[in-house]
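Here is one chain, start to finish.
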Amino acid sequence: MFERWKRSRVTLLGIAAPAPLLDRLRARQWRITPQRRAVASVLTGEHVHLTADEVRQAAQALVPELSLATVYNTLNELVVMREIREVRAADGPARYDPNVSEGHHHLVCRVCGTIYDVVPAGLPGLGLDRAERHGFALDDVEITFRGRCPECTNTTADARPLNRPKS
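Its structure:
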């Protein structure tokens, strides 16, 4: 479940290198408790899109007594601070993306739910004409590309989409 997360961790002398998210939180002088540090530490790496349950499971390796309520509270606070993004790219629970510094979109497998960050060519200036905005003041553009990953394309000729994506 966390193979991609584990592969993306960089270690030096057996200690995980500080996550960019932790560096940003320190710069904001956010109070970093052991529980918050554990949550922020697992939200690092490329193509990380974990659910709250997955965050708790991975963070409990660092802080065994970490509760799901603390994980949700921390994730919600980080979303409000715009330090992580809540992603709802498929049916199922929300996923949390620490990649907020780079404008990107998502590529989602309809079968297994794998999510990748992508930066498609030609989209930086994408917007809506004034008439198409219906009075909205635009804050952000979020695009989700859907398809089937190579593994699902090769193994499932006519598979039905799963409800729960994996990271």
